[in-house]
C-alpha cells in the first residue's frame, strides 16, 4: 500500500464504534467492524443474527451510535427487508424526511452467513434488496466455543473436529453470492485497511445487495496470541489463502495479487488449530495438499 | 355494504379497511386466498400498500416485525406448518413489543400431512406472547382484524395479535358479511402512530439487545405478561366502543343460554356454531344447556369464565386439539382457571374435530348425556376421543389396502 493510497482511502472519522465491548482481545472481526463503521456512520441500522457480535450490545449499553435490531440466526436479511420496505413506504408517504432514512446492514458470523441464514440471504439478493451484508468470517461457531462451520478450512481443528481436523472444504460464499448477480461482493480483512476502506466506499456508492466478506482472525478459536492478529491476517493474504477480490458489474477483479506468495505453512504453523499438521510428526502430504489447493486457485485465475 | 364473503376474503377486507401499509407474505393452503386477494387489490390500486413475497414464514414474520418496529402498519397471514415454521420469530415479535395482526387459518399439523383444520397449530402458539382472538363467523373475522389493530396498537399493550379462523369451515365458506365504510373504520381505528421507539435516522434505537443474567430477562418477560393482562381489560373497553359504532357485540367470552343452564358446552372456532345448534335442539327437548365460547384466548379471560361457570353442574369441554399424553388443551386451561372455585362444575373432556373430522349433532347429544351421567355420579370419565366404530372400520380397511392384504374392489 502506498502512502497516497492510504491517505486517499483513510477514514475521516475514527472511534465511531465505542470501545470497551466484551469481544475477545485481538478479535479480527471487531478490528474490521471498527473500520467499516467509521465509514458507514450512524445513519445505519444493524440487523444482527446470533454470533459473537451479538454481544456487542448488552443491555443497557451499546457501542453503536446508530440503530440495532437482533433478529435470530436464520433471518437477519428478512429483518433488513422489513426495515427497508418500511422506510421506503414512510419516505414515499412523506411520513419521514429523507435525512431520517437508514441503511440496513446485516451483521452475521460465518455460522449464519454460510449455513442457517443462507436461504434468507439468497432470497434477499433475489429480491434485489438494497442492503449491505457484513460477514465476519472466523471460520467456526465462535462464541459457542469454536465448532466447525461450513466456513471452516480443510484440516482445521475445532471443538467438533478435534483429532484430524475438519474434513470438509470451506464453502465458497463469494461465488454463491456472485451467482445471484448482486450489486457488489468483496472479500476483505481488517489488517489490510486501505483495501477494506476502498471496498466499503465502493459498496456505499452502489445500491442493491452488497456483501463484505471479512476474514476475522480469531485468537481463541484459531489458537494464537492476540498480539499476532494483524500478522496472521497479513499472512492470510500474502500466502494467497485469503484472496482479496471484488465482484462488480458482473466481473471479478483481484484487488491484491501477492507477487511472491509466502508458503502456506508460514500461516498455518502460527495457529494452534493446525498444530497437529506439524507435531508430533510433520504431515507433509496433507500440508502439500493444502498448498496445492492455494496454488491451483491462483493458477486457474488466468 | 353487505356481501357474501369467504372467511379468507373477510380477513383480507379487515386488512384493507385497516389501511395497512405493508404485507410480507408467503402462501400456504388454506390461507392463500387472503394474500391473493390483497395482491389483486394492490395491483388495482384499491390499497396503498406494499406487498413483499418472502421465502418462508420464518422470514415473513421477521420482515413483518422489523417493519412494524420501523413504524408502519403491518398485516400478514399463515396457517399450520407455516405458523410453526415462524414460531421462533413469534416469540421475538412479542419480545420486540411490536403491534401487528397475523391471521392464522387453522389446519392440522404433520405428520400425517393434512390440509384440513384443527387447533393444534394455533394452540402451539399459545405461549409465544401474541394475543389470540378466535372466530366463529366470517363477520367475526373481519371485525377481529379491526379490533386486533386497536388492541395491538394501544400504547399500554403494544403486543402482536393473532386472529384465528378455521381452514375450510370458515376460510372457504361464504356468509353474509357487513363491510363497514372506510370512514366508519377510520373513526374507530385512527392511523398508526409508532411512538418514539422506531428505526429512523437521528433517533437511534437498539432493540432486542442481549441481556446478561436472569434479572433483566425476567423483567422484560414479565412486562410483556403484564401488558397481556392489561390487554384483557382494554379489550373490554374497545369491544364496547366497537358495539356502539358498529352494533355488533364482541365480548371476550360469548355466552349462549347460560343464565339458567345446568350443563355447558365450551368450544372455540367455527364448530361452536354446531354446538349452538345442538343447544337449541336440547333446549327444545327441555334440557337446560348453554354454550360458552371464548373469543379471546390470550389473555385467558378467567374472570368472565369464572362468572359463567360458577355454580354450574357440568361442562363438556370439546377440544379440537390433542396434547399427546395429556389430552385436550382447553380442558387443562379451564380446569386450572376453575380450580379456585368452591362450587366448581364437573369438567368432562372430549377431543374431536381433528384434521377436519366432523362433529355431528348426534355426538353433541351424546356428550350431553355423558356429562349428565357424570354429574349424577360425581365422577368425570377419562378424556374421550370422538371417533365412531364405522370410522375405525374405514381406517382398518385403508390399512389392509396399504398392507396389500385387503379387498380393493
From TrEMBL, chain A:
Gene Ontology MF terms: oxidoreductase activity; thiamine pyrophosphate binding
Record key words, sorted: Oxidoreductase, Pyruvate
Record-linked SUPFAM superfamilies: Thiamin diphosphate-binding fold (THDP-binding)
Record carries keyword Oxidoreductase: yes
GO biological process: small molecule metabolic process
Gene3D superfamilies: 3.40.50.970
Thiamine pyrophosphate enzyme TPP-binding domain boundaries: 50-212
Name by which UniProt lists this protein: Pyruvate synthase
Automatic annotation (TrEMBL), chain B:
Name used for this protein in its record: Pyruvate synthase
A molecular-function term among this protein's GO annotations: oxidoreductase activity
Ranges for domain Pyruvate:ferredoxin oxidoreductase core: 261-362
Superkingdom of origin organism: Bacteria
Gene Ontology annotations of biological process type: response to oxidative stress
InterPro entries: PFOR_II, Pyruvate:ferred/Flavod_OxRd, Pyrv_Fd/Flavodoxin_OxRdtase_N, THDP-binding, Transketo_C/PFOR_II
Key words of the record: Oxidoreductase, Pyruvate
Organism: Syntrophotalea acetylenica (Pelobacter acetylenicus)
Residue ranges constituting the Pyruvate flavodoxin/ferredoxin oxidoreductase pyrimidine binding domain according to the UniProt record: 14-211
Listed Pfam families: PFOR_II, POR_N
Gene3D superfamilies in UniProt: 3.40.50.920, 3.40.50.970
